[in-house]
Design brief:
It is built from twelve helices and seven strands. With 272 residues, it is α/β, with parallel strands linked by helices. It has two domains: 6-187, Alpha/beta knot (3-Layer(aba) Sandwich), CATH 3.40.1280.10; 202-267, Orthogonal Bundle (Helicase, Ruva Protein, domain 3), CATH 1.10.8. The protein has a seven-stranded parallel beta sheet. The longest helix is centred in the last third of the chain and has 19 residues, at 245-263. The protein is elongated and about 70 Å long. The chain starts with 5 loop residues before the first strand and ends with a helix.
Length: 272
């Protein structure tokens, strides 16, 4: 019995090879991924080479949505897993594929229609930047031999989607203690449609961070030359906390009130 496509978007950041793009579209069709999103592609995703590799994934290739930035591509997504092969210097603790993908699948099922989830893969030549990795709730690493750890983009996608397919088909397979805890969360009754149990959609979180940065610059807590690094630390903190929609609304309310208070004339000013 075939399953409905997963409510997962596969996101490629600045792909340069049309053969890779076409191969990834085919893999999305193979493994029942709902859609393909391309961030500022550096090749023609609808050219002859891409179409030739897509085979029966041409429809997904033709329907692929193109975005100017990763933030725009993830704005409606709550659970985001990004793939990275650097092995050190990651802005968030990396996870083995099974654990990261179980977390990605935790919202699947139930009567509610969850926000899309996303799997993100970086550029063929240099992967994803730290800023881009900080937009993910989990960082996934594929174990390889030490002599040559870099995988071809479409090969990495194939490995991850095969793992995802296996986890979905056999959720009761052997798991580590951490994976067992995640699986138990996934098996719990599905939340109601208005529940705030899933992480906040990326667009709402990025808007809240932009508000906070503006205020912190205005009151002198941040300086223009250090704001980016400090906000990256705050973004990492919130990602590790898996901040929820109601919590983001609380933070935005605090920022709004603090901005109002900082601009309000003090009593001594009014006396003069």
């Amino acid at each position: 019995m075939s399953r409905a496509p997963l409510n997962i978007q596969l996101v490629l950041v600045e792909p340069a090879g049309p053969l890779n793009v076409g191969s990834v579209a085919r893999l999305c069709a193979n493994f029942g991924i709902a859609g393909l999103r391309l961030v500022a592609p550096r090749c023609d995703p609808l050219g002859e080479e891409a179409r030739r590799m897509a085979v029966h994934g041409v429809a997904l290739l033709e329907q692929a949505r193109i975005y100017p930035s990763l933030a725009a591509a993830l704005a409606d997504c709550s659970r985001v897993v990004a793939s990275s092969g650097r092995g050190e210097g990651e802005p968030l603790p990396p996870s083995p594929p099974a654990e990261a993908l179980r977390w990605l699948l935790a919202a699947e099922g139930g009567d509610a229609t969850p926000d899309p989830a996303a799997l993100v893969f970086g550029r063929e030549d240099r992967g994803l930047s730290n800023d881009e990795l900080l937009q993910a709730g989990r960082i996934l690493q594929i174990a390889t031999g030490p002599a040559y750890a870099s995988l071809n983009l479409s090969h990495a996608v194939a490995v991850v989607l095969h793992e995802l397919h296996g986890l979905r088909a056999n959720p009761g397979g052997a798991k580590s203690p951490v994976a067992q805890e995640l699986a138990a969360a996934a098996a719990a009754p599905a939340p109601a449609a208005d529940s705030a149990s899933d992480p906040c959609p990326r667009g709402l979180l990025e808007a809240a961070l932009a508000d906070a940065e503006s205020l912190l610059l205005e009151v002198g807590y941040l300086y223009p030359h250090t704001a980016h690094a400090r906000m990256a630390k705050l973004r990492g903190l919130l990602q590790r906390a898996q901040i929820r929609p109601q919590e983001v609304a609380l933070l935005r309310g605090m920022v709004c009130q603090l901005r109002w208070a900082s601009r309000r004339p003090c009593a001594s000013d009014e006396d003069h």
